[in-house]
Amino acid sequence: MDQIPADQAENLRKASTERLRAMAARIGTVDDDELANLDRMALIQVVAEDIVAKEIQTEELPADAGHRKLN
User: Fold this and answer.
1) Do residues 1 and 45 touch, judged by C-beta distance below 8 A?
2) CA–CA separation, 16 vs 60, rounded Å?
3) Hey, which end of the chain has fewer CB within 10 Å, N or C?
4) Taking the domains of the chain in order of start, what are their residue ranges?
5) CA-CA distances (angstroms) from residue 26 to 20, 60, 70?
6) CA 21 to CA 23: how far, in whole Å?
7) What sections of the chain are H helices per DSSP?
8) What distance in Å separates the CA atoms of residue 1 and residue 4, rounded to the nearest whole number?
9) What confidence category does residue 64 fall into, taking pLDDT thresholds of 50, 70 and 90?
10) Per-residue pLDDT tens for 9-32?
């Protein structure tokens, strides 16, 4: 959690365990059986790792990614 912005870390800490479980389920990196057995801290870790991965992907995109010039 040290790698995500403080406001996002705080939001994860405040989120209910069920909300964290739903967020982790949407990410899809953990199967349903394992997801059901994760404790709160593990759920926070799964979601935090996804946030970091998305930030890295965003930083790697060129500035004009997704914008094509139309003639």
Assistant:
1) yes
2) 32
3) C
4) 6-60
5) 10, 23, 35
6) 5
7) 6-14, 17-27, 32-37, 40-60
8) 6
9) low
10) 999 999 999 999 999 999 999 999
